[in-house]
Amino acid sequence: MADTAKSEYRGEIHSRQKELMSAWYQRLDEAARTGAPATVELMISGNCVELLEAFDAVPLYPEINALQLAIRHQSLEPILLAEELGYAADNCAYVKADIGALLKGISPAAGKLPKPSLVLCNFVGCNTYIKWFEHAAVFQGSPLYMLDVPFLRADSPSREDVTYVVRQLREVVKMLEAITGRKFDYGRFRHAVECSRRVEDAWSRIKLLAQRRPSPFDAYFDAITLMGPLYVYRASPAGVEFFDIALRELEARAARGEGVYDQEKFRVVLEGPPPYPYFRAFRDMFAKWRACPVASTYSTVGGLWEFGFRHDAEDPFEAVALHMLEHNLTNRNFLQRYAQLRRYVEDWNAHGLIIHFVKSCRLFSAGQGDMRDYFTRVLGVPTLYIESDLEDPRYFAEAQTKNRMDAFFEALEHAGAHRGLPLAVSGPAGPHANPNLKVIP
Amino acid sequence: MRSLSPRLLDIPRCVELIQDLNFAEVARWKAEHPGGKAIAYFPVYAPVEIIHACGMLPVGLNGAGDRLDIQHADARFGSFICSIIKTTLEMAITGRLDWMDGMFFSTICDSARNLCFVSKRNFPEKYWDFIHLPQNAGSPAAVDFLEQEYRRILLQLESLAGRKADDDALRGAIRLYNHNRELLRDLYALRERHPERLRTWELYSLLRAGCFLPVETHNAGLEAALAELRAGAAKPRDSIRILIEGSFCEQPPLDLIRLIEEAGCYIVDDDFILGRRWFTQDVPSEGDPIRALAESYLNRSVYSSVRHDPRHPRPRALVEKARSRRADAVLFLIAKFCEPAYFDYVLFKQAVEAAGIPHLLLEFEEKAFTFERSRTEVETFVESLLFD
């Protein structure tokens, strides 16, 4: 019989996060009211917030606005409005919620959202971004720059890929100079990149803490709390301070032997974004089984740092380009994601993998059936595949999802995974074999 | 079925080529060219000239239509994913693409990109590559990048072919495909002027047959067809002139195209098999051929829902096309789950409404075989315009 367990931790991280995110919305409101500071609409994936910081421009992330609407159960109304405009049932609901909210003047915060000074589409993997930002520029009457980042076709980007992105970043600098009326300050840009490096260091150490048992950190649900500051403040001293506090706090918990759950039972890896309209209900499905997400791909959309990459202030343009090209989930190819997940399962000592297919996001979801085949049939990793959406509440079947989650954890329990019994699995071991998975050669 | 010419490329033969999931024509080419490689490409565009210059046969795959039951691919790609992704994978899983030595995908959508890499895992013995076609056409850096991207592909293909493709071979391929595109432009222009002489389902068949034939053979067939059509005459029908938008990747069933025509439409332009008609002018066949192909992709190409070009907004381009073809209406013919087409539909719809052009949205799936609802919708739409 499963227990209901404590599922989240509230500490200074959470109060500071709230302060930072409120301050961000206040700056956006100020921009909406007074026209300053300059605001730049940007995508989360492989974002180049360092360049904005160099101009003291504020990023405006429509994905954060959309997910805030969904968590607050306010996404359906703008989605329906967008569908009336002609968006299809099968278009990404993030886009529909954002455009609908924009046209209706709905903001997830108390204040207003500004008309962005620049709509900067960092086209990093997701093709929907192109359309989303075209539409955002048209509906808001803002200038658009399409920063085209070559998709990672090989293990690493070529010199030509890097050159192409750097040349475009320099074009963005010219645009930002014209928009803000400021001359580009290279020293400030380097400082921003250096702040990012320090944040990335702390963030990576936080993620590695989840390798401990019990894990002091939920790398899916709690990671989302940290992801707001990670994308908005990464390149600023406020971000450095926040992540230093977060790391200290979590390290102290780890030193005391505290876990996300008093008695952690299962350790799972999560693939795919969460169902934001049912965020709490979904989280509770893990808590019921004291199942801690120890690693997730969703937390690497904006950047993948736990495997070693850091922004380097010695060559800030190249650092930003490399981050956009190679070191974020969305611009990496599907097989690189398999490798990333495999490494999580092995190095974070997970008992299984949960794949959450979201209807809206084909970048994440198209082909996840093949991913399941790879993990179950080739590697022998217990894998659960569930479907819903990240933004549209109409696609979440709560009872069915709960039944599937329960069945998955019951099967793990039956196999003795939580007692450390080896699971019968097949497939070659990675470099860091997981003792939870017995590999049959 | 009316046929154009029994000599080279008549319509029944074209239909047969399109519907042949054994790809007998490709197999025949390979038998006639021992050691020759066939390189497929997923829609919308691929630089076929580079494939040809390496002595290989480019093969345009546009799904399997209604002639294939999906038994394996659904489990790999799940719900909410368009049919062409699944039929392409299904063809590979069921051995129908065994003739294929490699395949290109490009920057058209997220599902197609993931399919490239899923295919690579499942069929590691074949060459799979992803071409990053630039989405920032306004930047001078884009041409330099694409040139290098094409050089990368050329090297890969040369290695696969075991032979070099020099500039003369590339220029020769450019000339052959320029001629092919010129013939297709002429056929499109003829249909636009005399839609009673050339039905769209026939033109489509002629066009798509080229996806499976050596370009030289296709050119000869098109020349014969064009000569015959120019000499011919037919009685005009009582039809409205429409333009089709949204079918640039997954292709509508042939019967659906026929149905639209039978319901009272002259289709005066469309975006079927758009990649084979990508350039508005000839690609320069002098100078550096790789640079010419890259530069033409960015500066001499049609507008498309899979190519962002800030210099030429697509909604405006659609309205201009509708006006220049004297279209009475626009029919948005969109494959189920096609995100690029559905996103563009929102801005297209606003633009055509602002221009006072009537429009209808029709969703299709390549595997559909009954179209009663579509028939009713098109007939009602046509009647509303005819008796307006």
Walkthrough of the structure:
The complex is a heterodimer of chains A (441) and B (388). Chain A is of the alpha/beta class. Chain A folds into two domains: 12-184, Rossmann fold; 262-440, 3-Layer(aba) Sandwich (Rossmann fold), CATH 3.40.50.11900. Helix content of chain A is 49%, strand content 11%. Chain A has 16 helices and ten strands. Chain A has helices at 12-34, 49-54, 62-71, 76-85, 93-104, 127-140, 159-180, 186-209, 221-232, 237-255, 279-287, 316-325, 334-347, 362-365, 368-378, 398-414, and strands spanning 39-41, 58-60, 118-123, 144-148, 266-271, 291-296, 352-358, 383-388, 423-426, 437-440. In chain A, the strands form three sheets. A four-stranded parallel sheet of chain A has the order 2-1-3-4, with helices on both faces. In chain A, helix 2 (49-54) links the parallel strand 1 (39-41) and strand 2 (58-60). Chain B is α/β, with parallel strands linked by helices and 388 residues long. Chain B has a domain at 21-168: Rossmann fold, CATH 3.40.50.11890. Chain B is 49% helix and 11% strand. Chain B has 15 helices and eight strands. In chain B, the strands form two sheets. In chain B, strands 2-1-3-4 form a four-stranded parallel sheet, sandwiched between helices. In chain B, helix 7 (140-161) crosses helix 12 (289-299), helix 8 (167-193) packs parallel to helix 10 and helix 9 runs antiparallel to helix 11 (254-262). Chain B is globular and about 65 Å long. Chain B starts with 10 loop residues before the first helix and ends with a helix. The model of chain B is unreliable at 1-7 (pLDDT under 50). Classes of the chains: A alpha/beta (441), B alpha/beta (388).
